[in-house]
Amino acid sequence: MTNEMNSELINRLKNEEEELVKELGEVSVKTEAGFEPKPTDFGSDTESYDGEEADEAEELGNSLSVKTVLESRLRHVRSALRKIESNTYGTCEHCGTPIEERDLEIDPARPHCKKCSE
Length: 118
Ligand SMILES: [Zn+2]
Hints:
Elements: H1 3-33, H2 46-85, H3 101-106, H4 114-117
Helix pairs in contact: 1-2
Zinc ion is lined by residues 92, 94-95, 97, 112-113, 115-116.
């Protein structure tokens, strides 16, 4: 791997890390603050009220799973950065096989080879 490729990769990963930290911040704040019951305007349309309730529950569920996804993604990105530093980037964390370059192109933080990701 050339130095040029390396620095491009590091940039890409660092940008993603930054994005993830930002997004995680937003998700966490949302979760910590909890979901205050929205001031409900009952009106006469009960159907739309039910819809709101469902949306809210869904929103809470989404933000929790989004957080989990973001956190694991961030772990992968950071571990990829560490691996670049220690010159072990591009090999599967599980079996040590080199990960195909085109897979790394798609996902630079990919921790495992195709076989181990299955
Ligand atoms: Zn593997």
